[in-house]
Amino acid sequence: MQIRYFVALSLLPFTAMAIDAPTPGQCVIIPPVPMPAANSGSIATPDVDATHDKIIISSDSSNAIMGDMASFQGDVRVSQGDRLIKADEAVFHQQQEQLNANGNLIFQDSLFTVTADSLVAKMRQNTAVLSGANYWLHGQQVHGEAQELQITPDNNLLLKKTNFTTCPPENLTWLLEADRIKIDSEDEWGEIWDAKLKLLGVPVLYIPYMTVPVSDKRKSGLLFPSISSSTNNGLEVTTPYYWNIAPEYDLTFTPHAMTNRGLFLQTEFRYLGGEAQQGQINLGYLGDDRLLDDDPNRYMYHWQHQGAIDENWRVLANYTEVSDDNYFNDLPSDINQSTDNQLNRIGEVNYFQRNWDTSIRVQDIKVLGNENEEPYKIMPQISANYRLPDVWHNLDFAFSTELTNFEHNQDSEAKATRLHMEPSLTLPIYVPAGSLTTELKLYQTNYWQRELNQDDGLGKSVSRTIPQARIHGQINFERNTSILGNDYRQTLEPQAQYLYVGYEDQSDIGLYDTAALADDFYGLFRDSRYSSVDRIANANQVTIGATTTLFDNQNLEQLKFSLGQIFYFDDNKVTLDPEFEEETPSFSVLASELDAHLYDKWYFSGAIQFDTKEGSTKKSEFSLDFRPGTNKLIQANYRYVPDLLNTNTNNRVNISQTGLRTTWPLTDNIYFVGNWYYDLNRERTVETFTGLQYESCCWAVRLSYHYNITTNYVEDFNPLEDSREKFEKGVYLNFVIKGLGGSGPLGVSDMLDEGLFNYRKPLYLRN
Q1: Both 645 and 766 in a single domain?
Q2: In the chain, how many domains are there?
Q3: Which of 426, 466, 698, 733 has its CA 20 to 30 A from that of 296?
Q4: Mean pLDDT, to the nearest integer, of 295-318?
Q5: Residue 197 within any structural domain of the chain
Q6: Residues contacting residue 473 through CB under 8 Å, at least 6 positions apart
Q7: 751 and 621 in one domain?
Q8: Range from 248-252, 282-286, 467-471, 750-754 carrying the lowest mean pLDDT
Q9: Average pLDDT of the chain?
């Protein structure tokens, strides 16, 4: 017969460890004993008020002496809230407030399950000792054994002669054995003394002391190292260290030991400035680079900051400096890639109101590898914008102005101050069947140019006034149709734009921040050919274009095709180079773009700009994707750009390249990622990347091979640049033990971004 006792005493308050939901791709280790129904299959929130609940004890039989002790035998169950103790027998000493239990002992709550030989719990001291314990964290991979598991009065865990792992019991790839482990329940991290790491049962590392996190809280300590070997750097071993300085500050220090160059040091410091501001500082230093002549010191420092001061004020800062132009080509960096040849330094403060905003900005762009193409500095630029919608009968008024001072490091270059004002009136009309927008705009610009050369042809004081008128209309058609037996909803959106911009001779104005814009489909409907106002191209033209789309029964976009062209009534008289007389045809290139879900898992994306007068292609790019599932991808792509200016050499080259990129799971645990790019003009491979990754529940390893062309800028810093490798080869190895500072899964998305040509999902379908 079962007897129930209700005891108005609190059971020991077991430590509360923060538990996260298991990460996708990780295994969940299930305890060998059944979990309580309330906890089964879920990670419950610990009952923080459980110590105030009544204790319920049930057993097959019991004996009690009032005020002294009570003993229970046979299927003993002691429960309080979501906590449960099972044992063959238990004795409760009331005067000592001590509970002894043994025989098939099991402790369970919402956080973990513990089996043990015996339990001694002292209620008054809030302590407990379990001997011969095995433990499992619910919803996690962590489990292990302990000769003795002690719960301290401050709710910490002490484990003696213990071990733990995140591997399944039937496949203990790694196991950490320790003389003592302390788990702090408040800080949620563990201290480990006299530890041995075993791989496949073989001791490989002795660790006298280490710390590990037991939740997602940040914790200082060594991160996993990586090993690589490359043509230029030689054998490279990277051993990062993470320092959790404070909740709003942290620092990662990463030394790279390179056999060919020396010791390269990297530091990243991150900070939070209140709730809405953040930033970071990056430093890199390589003393006495042995690979270069004269063993120069090489360095990089970077600072970026952004955020909101309050609901109106915004700030932005970004500054980078390097010792030499080839720094990013030779050394690893999280700031710039080797294909980036510009350092954009900027500082900006903005103030926003509902109908107006203002800002002040400074900017300096450093071009790597080309001192002759150094851009102007903006020191500073003050701008303001005012918007007054529906000022009269749906008429919108806007006014933009900027005052910019341009400086240059070279004394031979002119300097200038520019004042630009741009009022506009816009009448937008929108109805379901389409839209019609009429716009009048006036460009008023004044220049004060100084330090001029006689042969520049520039004026000291220039005033320019240019009117602009634009009318843009679009009609929306829609119908239901059937293609190859499939039902679709098709839309057709023809659009037309007339643009008139007055002409004024601008050859006496310098080029300070203006460049030509791309001639893609959406660029056909812009009102300017240039990126800024140093040149405002005259125009008397009509743009005709159309876009059609197909939607399936789930309203997912399956195809989108756009085609358009500009027809010129007057020749363009404004060019970036006054010595170059630009030939103006009667029409622009024919620009088209296509994105399509071809069939099942096949996708196509393409864009082409075709010169109908010359019968030649000005630019084209295509990609074909096969994506049958998660982490399954095969992509073939091609791009062609003729007469492209190489800013490193000032020579014009034709780009004709094709590539193949893939990622595919070979088994449930092994993934393959590879890409290959080939230069059709030079008939050579420009990049090859191959990566294999094995990932199990408790560890992962990645091995990759790189072969790619390298950029080498000619500069005085390294007079032996011609002796460098034009191609670089490298092998890289990354290893992660999950549960010892590593997390998972590694995934393959970051491997798709490896190399010179990062993967881009080329589709812009709204699905």
Answers
A1: yes
A2: 3
A3: 733
A4: 95
A5: no
A6: 434, 435, 436, 437, 495, 496, 497
A7: yes
A8: 750-754
A9: 85
92 near 69, Cβ under 8 Å?
A: yes
pLDDT reported for residue 55: 75
- Do 618 and 763 lie in one domain? The reply is yes
Q: Hunting for tokens 């071009």 — which residue is that? A: 367
Q: Are 739 and 698 in contact (CB under 8 A)?
A: yes
Contact between 101 and 127 under an 8 Å Cβ cutoff? The reply is no
Q: Tell me the pLDDT band of 715, cut-offs 50, 70 and 90.
A: low
- Comparing C-alpha atoms, which of 374, 362, 351 is closest to residue 317? 362
Q: Are residues 619 and 738 in the same domain?
A: yes
Bridge-based pairing of strands 157-165 and 670-679 is: unpaired
Q: How far is CA 243 from CA 225, 227, 253, 427, 743, in A?
A: 16, 22, 8, 57, 18
717 lies in the same domain as 632: yes
For residue 548, what are its two tokens?
């059609």
Q: Looking at the domain assignment, is residue 236 inside a domain?
A: yes
Per-residue pLDDT, averaged over 65-85, amounts to 85
Same domain for 103 and 232? no
Asked whether residue 204 is domain-assigned, the answer is no
Q: How confident is the model at residue 747 (pLDDT cuts 50, 70, 90)?
A: low
Measured CA to CA, the distance from residue 438 to residue 430 in angstroms comes to 12
User: Of 29-33, 115-119, 466-470, 669-673, where does mean pLDDT reach its minimum?
Assistant: 29-33
Residues 6+ apart with CB under 8 A from 462: 446, 447, 449, 508, 509
CA angle 468, 473, 474 (to 5 degrees): 150
Q: Which of 280, 315, 336 is the last residue of a domain?
A: 336
Asked if residue 759 is part of any domain, the answer here is yes
Residue 289 domain boundaries: 220-336
Between residues 738 and 48, the one the model is more confident about: 738
For range 432-438, the mean pLDDT? 96
Strand segments, DSSP code E, in 368-433 are 377-392, 395-407, 415-431
Answer whether 664's CB lies under 8 Å from 633's CB.
yes
pLDDT of residue 334: 86
Question: Averaged over 446-458, what is the pLDDT?
Answer: 91
Tell me if 314 sits within 8 A of 350, measured CB to CB: yes
Q: Are residues 245 and 133 in the same domain?
A: no
Helices (H) and strands (E) in the chain, counts: 2, 42
Sorted by sequence, the CB contacts under 8 Å of residue 550 that are 6+ apart come out as: 483, 488, 489, 490, 557, 558, 559, 560
DSSP string, 702-758: EEEEEEEE------TT-TTGGGS-SEEEEEEEEEEEBTTTB-S---SHHHHT-SSS-
Tell which of 336, 358, 392 closes a domain: 336
| Residue 149 and residue 254 share a domain | no
pLDDT in tens, 456-489: 889 999 999 999 999 999 999 999 999 988 899 9
Query: Cα separation of 145 and 176, whole Å?
Result: 11
- The full length of the chain comes to 767
Contacts of 323 (CB under 8 A, 6+ apart): 296, 297, 298, 299, 300, 717
Give exposure, 411-422, as e/b (b: 16+ Cβ within 10 Å): eebbbbebebbb
